[in-house]
Write a structure and sequence with these properties.
246 residues; alpha/beta; 7 strands; 48% helix; oxidoreductase; Acetoacetyl-CoA reductase; EC 1.1.1.36; Sc_DH/Rdtase_CS; SDR_fam
Length: 246
Amino acid sequence: MRKLALVTGSKGCIGSAITEKLVNQGYRVVATYFTGNLRCAELWFEEKKFNLEQVRLFELDVTNTEECATRLTTLLEEEGTVDVAVNNAGVILDSLFTKMTADSWNTVIDTNLNSLFNVTQPLFSAMCEKRGCRVINISSVNGLKGQFGQTNYSAAKAGMIGFTKALAMEGARYDVTANVVAPGYTATPMVETMREGILDAIKSKIPMKRLAKPEEIAEAVAYLASDAAAYITGETLSVNGGLYMS
């Protein structure tokens, strides 16, 4: 029977790569899109040449606790247990802390961190009952080391790691694993449009002297979702070309 994966932030560069990789590995993917953005999601679906057996578009505001509880309960009734939940939705609103607004702080925390509760909590009991399921959270190298101008983003991404370790302990007796993938700088359209000098400076700090490919992040997710990773839980898999070594 085909396994079911849910991917939040599925239309972004990394989310698209994760969705495509899981589809290619035989998963049926529930790809979330933000409330009211159906047409944008449909265009993405068509561009990627998915079919309805491979991908189901699913409207969901990951920052809305009540909506997530209601919509995801309905999803379980319609589709059955989610075997793999990939929390990938995220937003960046950079600012010096002295100039950061409460709105910028709350938006980043709600989208990048509170969404983990909102999305995972309605699914987790069914995952434990089925056993052998996976929760995979997409953090960042900046959640491990911090970053100038990103107190909100670094706090959220670091919080994801703590959340994952605690959840891993609760899921372990049910063979439900929880792990983090922490990408470094990745070749997304936003990063690649940086001024050449800035991009060169970033690459110079990476031992491998290049950005990650979105497909390389997706490969890490696929590995943690696989049976080969059944004994790995509570871990953070860094995919950053050696940018941050401990």
